[in-house]
Design goal:
single chain, 9 strands, globular, 26% helix, 5-stranded mixed beta sheet, 22% strand, 165 residues
Length: 165
């Protein structure tokens, strides 16, 4: 199965204050997000992380990545430093990706777009960065943890949300 997520901000103390995430401490935040990830994603699943993964040392980023289920890809976000980008556990690292799944084009970037490739042909833009604060746009979804109960989301859940008014 394929999952998408963004804006985990592991190890970044600003996240509790800026986004008012409901955790008593940064350690509790990081433990909860890792547990929810592994509860949702299986060892053989694929995960596209659309940026702002962690603010840690190289050793801590590597250890954290190794503890999370799935084959992980990074779409670089504005808060991803050298330790995150250079971590060997990523299956791929890029700033932008177009991914076709079941005949549908998904345009992946940390940042939301106003328009994107094949928008007129029903392609879908998945993004992070906005922490659930943007007004929804047709065929555009914020896959950040703030929008999906602090866990990665699969395509079935995204498509189900798409059908709702």
């Amino acid at each position: 199965m394929i999952f998408f997520t963004s804006d985990t901000h592991f190890g970044d103390p600003r996240i509790l204050r800026l986004d008012r995430r409901p955790f008593s401490s940064l350690a509790a935040h990081d433990l909860a997000l890792a547990a929810l990830w592994n509860e949702t994603v299986g060892p053989h699943d694929e995960v596209w992380h659309l940026g702002d993964f962690a603010k840690h040392s190289p050793a801590t980023v590597s250890s954290l990545l190794s503890s999370l289920n799935g084959r992980k890809h990074l779409i670089v976000g504005n808060n991803d430093g050298a330790a995150t980008i250079a971590a060997a556990a990523w299956a791929s690292v890029s700033h932008y990706k177009e991914l076709t799944v079941d005949g549908c084009l998904f345009v992946l970037c940390h940042y939301p777009f106003r328009t994107w490739n094949q928008i007129g042909k029903r392609s879908i833009n998945l993004h992070g960065h906005s922490h659930g604060r943007l007004k929804p746009m047709t065929r555009q979804y914020d896959v950040g943890v703030d929008s999906w109960n602090f866990r990665p989301v699969n395509l079935a859940a995204i498509k189900a949300k798409r059908r709702r008014p």
